[in-house]
């Protein structure tokens, strides 16, 4: 029986990768090209008549039992692209010599001769149908010259007795003969296709020898052009029956976990159950409405940044396709402040909600309104439609019913280099909002189990009364003192269309006042301009380092590395979510400092490995005279 071609020395090259960043390429190629040959019963051991009777039937069954499209594709743009990325990372880390050392090690694998270093390569994972579907991963490698590629492959195969010869019946098949049986390599469209170790059987070997895999350089061109490394999940490759069966098992498992736990309160159980059901419904919705899921990453050298995308492609004319297309909403009410730069952390969302999402948000709002009513209102007040809690939640619900949410929250760094958290929620206009909030705060203050110190109308910012909730403890711990400058309080207030909040010391009030003043003094044109994505999060690491003194940074190995990698201009992580022509994309963008940090981390690991190797060598040399004396 023929078995698939796999290479053996994966572990060796994995260790090499840890020592030298550039040998990431070797790891990828070895995983693609290699694994240990499995012992199989030789086909020649069967009687000739038996083979003739069995082969046609098994081949037909094998072709039909493996799904026609791969469920998962892992695509590498090219060897040269990856090598270029690794060179760039070590240049940023000011350790180019590591890349040079790693480059020289390619000689151990015949310099990858026979592999086209400018074309994409990767893995396709097919599914073999059955009661329990089985994965069938295949490798695709671009080949320049078959003979040279086979020479490289022979250097990687373990053992001295293996030989690679062309199949006697077909020019596109090559057979590896060795102590452990036979293996097969299939060449098509200048690519070599092989199976991973452990999946060799009549069905998978029939697939390798008979299936039209297509040209990976053409069918995966979009992934190769956009990303250095990408993973694609093709939901269309899953048959409907298999999808339904999976969801049935998954639904049963989730519902089992949603039973009320011992000691769990009714309110906590209701919230957990509601969240669990929503997660289950979201997964079912994605599997039924989605077509593809892609994770892709690349390094943009001119801009000196890294990009990681998560793309969801919706089925044409599906509910998901219509929903994501309508995500962008009108400009945020908070637009003039959500685009401020160099904030430690900022999150904003101004987006339209699909009907399905509106129902989900309304469920949560109803839940919290119910819990608050049971806690603060008498039974008679709960029967009325004019309670302060209903008046408080009504404009929020109206905003959701209209299908738009507009919120922001920011962690700001104050002139004292301490942090304060501020934020706001835009709601439908309501003159009752300030008074209803005040009544709710007063009722919380009267609760017998309330331990916070509450001060109504404690501060005023831009004509808006802020109510302060201060924790019982008046002594700040080390972290509170370091990050916030003291014991934090929660400040909350409202005007007729926004619920405002701030958390921190008195500097939080000043930060919120500045933000509201910026909004109020902005021109109408400026406020209508949308400056951020519909959903956006940004993070700057430099303000966090500014919380520590120079002496503290130098004493800490980790912070010293961070201080060397990041400046004010290269420390941003930006996360955005916005629609595409066929679905929705969430993008993570990393500034140059994070690429530099990666290079520094790999370099330090390389140095540690070198030191350990030198130490072992020295110990071996010191021990040699003792060993020689014992021999004498």
TrEMBL record:
Residues 43-61 have a biased composition (Basic and acidic residues). Residues 42-61, 609-632 are annotated as: Disordered. The keyword Signal applies. Keywords: Signal. Residues 1-39 form the signal peptide. It comes from Gimesia maris. This is DUF3352 domain-containing protein.
